[in-house]
Design a protein that fits this description.
The chain is an alpha/beta fold. It folds into two domains: about 240 residues, 3-Layer(aba) Sandwich (Rossmann fold); about 190 residues, Rossmann fold. The protein contains 20 helices and 14 strands. Strand 3, helix 3 and strand 4 form a beta-alpha-beta unit. Helix 12 packs across helix 13. The longest helix is centred in the middle third of the chain and has 27 residues.
Length: about 450
């Protein structure tokens, strides 16, 4: 009997941020003959015991990953992992504590990275034990490159038609303004409510983030008044509460608060992007949209240098209003491309050349997953994996009904509202037209929130 290729298991947590890039990555895998199961991370975990052996594509390797990674290995799945938050990161010591678990990392077969900077952070981690690291880039960046950014053109034009010339403000205060306040880790640290030991850095970072949050709250009404001739669109982080911003919108009809769709077409359509230490400033720099990093308080230990290096920096409200007015009036634009590129290259691979998605699937091909599945574990391990999947699913289903729990179904649906097979096929068709690839790929429903993509 001919060997079967490994199944690629593609979990998605934040749909608006991750789905398009992971469909692209799935298309590259399916094009090479891999069957791909894509969908809600929570629901993939519910189904994982019945999925043919393959490679689970993990977007993080924190302490919370340990239990699931063990189950995956017991069931015979290998793990390829990257850190979705590895582009903007804290100093190594803090990054290691916040984002990496030595126990989880031991179960990973391959690590891929945003760029060399991210790779160096993995190598310096005391729990790193020579897991192969491949500097591939991230498929989210592929979607911003010239050959693929037209993917969002029709959506960008529809947004521009709806809102005209608008200013985009992106916020990323989920750790101090979470959808569920009790899950705002840094705010909990500042208030002394975080369980376990609270490190001084966490309190300092929390106070800094809260201070920036307060500045944005004070800035927004003034900003809306100063740009009454423009629509101001504010997009909160996917896990952030909208209420603070909606309260401002009650008194400012030119303010729109929305988290609709992927942020990329909004970045393309905007006249200017205003944020503080947000990935969207880097994404804007790739697209060539002018970005302004509003830094009313700057602390090198807590801020991300790359967002300042690719944007126009302002420290006062007066400077912010003046700079944004200059940009919308056409007197000022983004920083020149050479400056932006020089700031990004240490952090982001695959800005040019082969797509990051191709480079990531190369890792699987080179390891032989295209010809065979991972070896079957001993029967006792498979039984333990099956048993612990059932127990874990039972626990998670109960927690979905607990308000304020991180597994609550309302929070799941907020981050993953769902996608139909038709919508997924439409996305694939748009990729096909732009790249002249992915011919003959099909989408079939597996179960609730899960789909197969295959030839």
């Amino acid at each position: 009997m001919a060997a079967s290729p490994s199944t690629i298991i593609m979990p998605v947590e934040n749909q608006v941020r991750e789905m398009d890039a992971k469909i692209l990555l799935s298309c590259v895998a399916a094009e090479r003959g891999y069957p791909v199961l894509i969908g809600s991370r929570a629901y993939i975990h519910f189904a994982v015991a019945s999925i043919p052996r393959g490679v689970y594509m993990a977007k993080s390797m924190k302490t919370r990953s340990i239990r699931m990674f063990k189950i995956l290995n017991q069931l015979g799945h290998d793990i390829l992992a990257w850190d979705e938050e590895g582009l903007l990161r804290e100093p190594d010591e803090i990054y290691h504590r916040w984002r990496l678990s030595s126990v989880a990392m031991k179960r990973i077969a391959f690590l891929t990275t945003w760029g060399e900077n991210n790779a160096s952070a993995f190598r310096s981690f005391e729990g790193y034990e020579n897991t192969p690291i491949k500097v591939t880039g991230n498929p989210r960046i592929d979607l911003l490159r010239p050959e693929l950014r037209e993917f969002y053109r029709s959506e960008a034009e529809a947004i521009r038609e709806q809102f005209g010339n608008f200013i985009l403000i992106n916020t990323n205060f989920s750790k101090v303004n979470h959808y569920y306040p009790e899950l705002g880790e840094l705010k909990q640290a500042v208030e002394g409510k975080k369980s376990g030991k609270t490190e001084p850095y966490d309190i300092g970072k929390g106070r800094h983030k809260l201070a920036i949050f307060e500045h944005f709250k004070k800035m927004l009404p003034v900003f809306c008044d100063a740009f009454a001739d423009y629509t101001v669109v504010l997009r909160p982080h996917p896990s952030e509460s909208h209420q603070t911003w909606l309260d401002v919108a009650k008194d400012h009809p030119n303010l729109v608060v929305t988290n609709e769709g992927n942020v990329h077409p909004w970045l393309m359509a905007a006249k200017v992007v205003v944020a503080n230490g947000c990935t969207t400033l880097v994404e804007s720099a790739i697209l060539g949209t002018a970005g302004v990093n509003y830094e009313p308080e700057a602390v090198a230990e807590y801020d991300f240098a790359i967002t300042s290096d690719v944007s126009r920096r302002v420290s006062t409200l007066e400077e912010l209003l003046k700079t944004v007015r200059s940009i919308v009036d056409g007197e000022t634009g983004p920083l020149d491309y050479a400056t932006r590129k020089a700031a990004m290259e240490p952090h982001i691979a695959a800005l040019e050349g082969r797509l990051a998605a191709d480079r990531m699937i190369d890792v699987l091909d080179e390891a032989g997953y295209g010809e065979k599945q991972p070896s079957a574990p001993p029967a006792i391990d498979r039984f333990c994996g099956w048993y612990h999947t059932k127990i874990r699913t039972y626990e998670k289903r109960i927690n979905m009904n607990k308000r304020g729990h991180r597994n609550n179904i309302a929070l799941h649906d907020h981050r993953y509202p769902g996608i139909t097979a038709e919508e997924m096929l439409n996305t694939i068709d748009r990729f096909r037209q732009l790249l002249n690839r992915f011919h003959g790929l099909q989408v079939e429903k597996h179960s609730e929130h899960l789909y197969w993509i295959h030839k």
